[in-house]
Amino acid sequence: METRIGLLGLFFYYFVVISAVLNIISGEVQSYWEQPFSQPYFDNSTKREVTATVGQSALLHCRVRNLGDRAVSWIRKRDLHILTVGILTYTNDQRFQSLHTEGSDEWTLRITSPQPRDSGTYECQVSTEPKISQAFRLNVVVSKAKILGNSELFIKSGSDINLTCVALQSPAPPSFIYWYKGGRVVNYSQRGGISVLTERQTKTSKLVIARAMPADSGNYTCSPSSSDSASVVVHVINGEQPAAMQHGNSSANSVLINNRSFGRFRGCCTWAGLWAAFSVGGSKNVILSLTSSWLSCWLLKSAIGLPPPGR
Question: Residue 131 needs a FRET pair 20 to 30 A away by CA distance; which of 110, 195, 293, 300 works?
Fold first, then answer.
């Protein structure tokens, strides 16, 4: 009997102790959820400034922890226009869309085909009381391709056509850079001696056509992905000609004399004008007439594509 009483007392003792411990734990758990850090807060590891090119989708990533039953909205700061609430779009401009995967902490604003006017500050806002928000800066730039050198080149037959294209103001390396002759992609199988070297990290591409022939003359276009294209007109000629010429891979000799450099002498052809042309082109590249007659001037101007005197 005494043993039973002792066991019951021991059981009652442990019951009281366990109840007390459970009450303490329950209070601590409740206290934990009432603490400030259990409220929604932003994960600051996301990129806050984004640069996008015209025509390529721009993505602003907002990450919210402990969101609970609150809503996430995207606001355009310049006019305080509500763009999205949750996954719903609240603007007539359907280029704006909120992307969210169920169960994730990320709410992404996607802007399809952004334009420079879309540059500015956007806020990711959470419907707490008071509201909390995080600002993101979007820069939309126009990426353009540039072919180094003149827009019109004269290549001596048998020399190499060497063109270098650079994608300017491109926030990321282009996924591809295509070369066109006329409206068609440069055909490697059409003839030998054509090579293209594209370096994505430096955003450059080099087109080399070895031993150029007159049939290689034409309009060459460099077209990187997400960039405006650039073109150059190439003339492959037989023999020497006082014009803008590119000799093989040498850029130092790429311009001997062209219409622009001779344009300052268009007014009339005098010995002074001929001497100025001689100074621009050099003795090896400009054949000067020994007479200042009208015929000599006409011949010289016609050779470089300028109208004859009096026109």
Answer: 110
Is the peptide bond prior to 116 cis by the omega test (within 30 degrees of 0)?
Answer: no
| Buried/exposed 36-70: b ≥16 CB within 10 Å, e otherwise | eeebbbbeeebeeebebbbbbebebbbbbeebeeb
Is the entire prediction scored with pTM above 0.70?
A: no
**Are 204 and 164 a contacting pair, CB within 8 Å?**
yes
Q: Dihedral (C-alpha) 203, 206, 207, 211: value to the nearest 10 degrees?
A: 180
- Angle (CA) 301-304-305 rounded to 5° is 80
Among 42-46, 72-76, 236-240, 287-291, the minimum mean pLDDT is found in: 287-291
Decide if pLDDT at 204 tops 60. yes
Kindly list the distances between the CA atom of residue 154 and the CA atoms of 205, 259, 276, 280, in Å, as whole numbers in the listed order: 21, 12, 22, 17
| Across 59-75, average pLDDT | 96
Q: Residues 248, 253, 256, 259: is their CA dihedral positive or negative?
A: positive
80 phi, psi to nearest 5 deg: 55, 30
Q: Which tokens hold the place of 31? A: 């206290």
pLDDT in tens, 85-118: 999 999 999 999 999 999 999 999 999 999 999 9
Closest CA to 76 of 126, 137, 129, 131: 137
